[in-house]
Amino acid sequence: MANQSDEFCDICQRMDISKPADAFCPQCEDFLCGACQNYHKVAKLLNSHQTISIVEYMKLPTFIKNVNIKCADHENIFEFYCKTHDNLCCKQCLITSHNDCNEITLIEDLLSMSALQKTSALDDIEQILKCLSTNIHTAIDDRKRNLYEIQQQKDNLLGKIKEKRREINNLLDQLEKSLLQELSEVEKESNQKMEMVIKELEERSSKSIQLQSDIALMKRCTSNFQIFMGVREMTEHVSSEEKHIKSICNGSLNNVTIECIFNDQLNTFIENIYTLGKIEMTTIKSEISFSWADDKTAQLYTPRQKARPFKDIQVELVHRINTRGHVTGCAILPTGKILLTDYNYSILIYDKNGGFETRINVKFSHAFSLAVVDECTVVISAGGWEQNLFLLDINSGNTIKEMQMMSDSCYGVSVQNGSYIVSTNRGIQILSIPLEGVTNIMTLSGDKRK
Q: Per the database entry, which stretches of residues form a coiled coil (predicted)?
């Protein structure tokens, strides 16, 4: 394989020869060409060294490549490890900086004694990385779920906003229609009154014209005696017309105006409302559960810390849940949800904050206790006349399997490594429950085993 690096053989360079390196020896910290690698393999003092190809070396992390077996201060090879300061030391470091340290160990002894421990430390780191990868993918999936939910919520809110706009439009249309109808009625009533006044005035005008015509005719065609006798009659007609005209002018010639007085609440509404509503974003603590590896430092030589004494452990009440029914058992799902058995034919489900979610009604009596099999399945012990165990799907509420307990009343139940540990009236029974039936592995009654 062609050399793809810029490294040259260190041994050849010491002889002023430049040859591309084909391998690297971590113990010697030397790059080797093909020929020098062959000599390196057969040399008596070096044949235990494990070389790696230059291609593998280039793939190593930078911090591994930068590992130096020599002390930067004194240019001596590291030979000791100080547990007190967690430092590698050369001979001169030991004298100048660690003379008073009591936990000094030879590096050779540590490396030869801790091969298994080194592998275990790397396994621990690998396990942590696997957990991190799983948690990252879980978090990504959860964020994608939340993004989808936000899009669904947006679409739902768009519909609600448009519906609210339609409600407001319908209300305004109805109010406008009512006000326009009232305007038309007021205008029609005013017009009718004025048209009646105009009609009456026009009739009086016709009579006035007729009376004037009669006077002109009397002047031309009647004798003085006839005029004398007709003046009184004419005066009465004119006086009557004058009274009618005065009554019309005094009571029916008032100017009429129409205007709209808007509801005060509407003015307040217009002045004070600036938005149809407000979009709020609520942050709710995530209910997803992560699986974290043990917090190990992966230091090969760190002393184990002492466990805390039991007397130093402080217990405090974090939260109190107000339950419903006659609660006899409790279990927590991997999701954090809380399951409670109600002695009266049901299973109660609460969220991890203690908020009641739902009730699953079961067909067996006296649900005494329960234990989690997996995130969807629980096993329930029945203390009633059935005296059996029941596998229940908590998503559907259906009974998956009923397990006969040989006429023993069941109380507490637990699941450990595929076995079911049941407290009965005969003692503690450890059961293996394959699909075809129940196998009694062991019964413990007091100090005796059956």
A: 147-204
Q: Give the Cα separation of 40 and 49 in Å (integer).
A: 8
Q: What are the tokens at 292?
A: 């974290």
Dihedral angle sign, alpha carbons of residues 166, 170, 172, 176: positive
> Sign of torsion, CA 383 385 389 393?
negative
DSSP-derived 3-state class of residue 22: coil
Four-point Cα dihedral 377, 134, 336, 297, nearest 10: 130
Considering 123-127, 258-262, 425-429, the range whose residues carry the highest mean pLDDT is 258-262
What is the three-class DSSP state of 349? strand
Phi, psi (degrees; rounded to nearest 5) at 58: -65, -25
How much of the chain is in helix, strand and coil states, percent to nearest 5?
Answer: 40, 20, 40
Q: How far apart are CA 323 and CA 344, in angstroms?
A: 14
pTM of the entire structure? 0.40
CA distance 154 to 151: 5
**Positive or negative, the Cα torsion across 187, 190, 192, 198?**
negative
Whether 241 contacts 207, CB under 8 Å: yes
List 358's β-bridge partners, or say none.
349
Length of the chain: 450
User: CA 282, 288, 289, 290 torsion: positive or negative?
Assistant: negative
420: which strand partners?
415, 431
Q: Give the pLDDT band of residue 127 (cuts 50, 70, 90).
A: confident
CA 208 from centre of chain: 92
Contact 335, 290 (CB under 8 A): no
Measured between alpha carbons, how far is residue 5 from residues 28, 56, 198 in Å? Answer: 19, 11, 114
Interval 155-176 mean pLDDT: 91
Which ranges constitute the DSSP H helices of 103-114? Answer: 107-113
> 7-40: per-residue pLDDT in tens?
899 999 999 999 999 999 988 889 999 999 999 9
* 5 — pLDDT class (breaks 50, 70, 90): low
